[in-house]
Amino acid sequence: MTASLSPSEDLLAIALDWRAAGLPVALATVVETWGSAPRPAGSQLVCNDRGAFAGSVSGGCVEVAVIEAAQQVMANGRTQLLSFGVSDEQAWSVGLACGGRIRVFVEPVE
Questions:
Q1: pLDDT value at position 1?
Q2: pTM: predicted TM-score of the whole model, two decimal places
Q3: In the predicted model, is pLDDT for residue 2 greater than 50?
Q4: Which three-class secondary structure string do you get for the chain?
Q5: What is the arithmetic mean of pLDDT over 26-50?
Q6: Partner of 25 at 20 to 30 A CA spacing, among 32, 48, 68, 109?
């Protein structure tokens, strides 16, 4: 019998594979949600500096903005805490119109 990996373990395995290949990697994690958030706290997305990514923090609503922030995190090594919500003009521009709000922590994977 083989044990299957949880989605988080799958993402961490992907991140470690990318790092082993010499690529910069960032991990984004939903740390807080309010209202009708698209994904629960703990949801994750991992990406590398070539634009490849796996996972989801919003079901597609704000992934582009999170990946752009992750590119900055990989370039400068500084973590970022992102906030998206229906009252936030940026959230509308990236498509978070579900009525909820989320906070996403983005960090480099060392």
A1: 39
A2: 0.83
A3: no
A4: CCCCCCHHHHHHHHHHHHHHCCCCEEEEEEEEEECCCCCCCCCEEEEECCCCEEECCCCCCCHHHHHHHHHHHHHHCCCEEEEEECCCHHHHHHCCCCCCEEEEEEEEEC
A5: 92
A6: 32
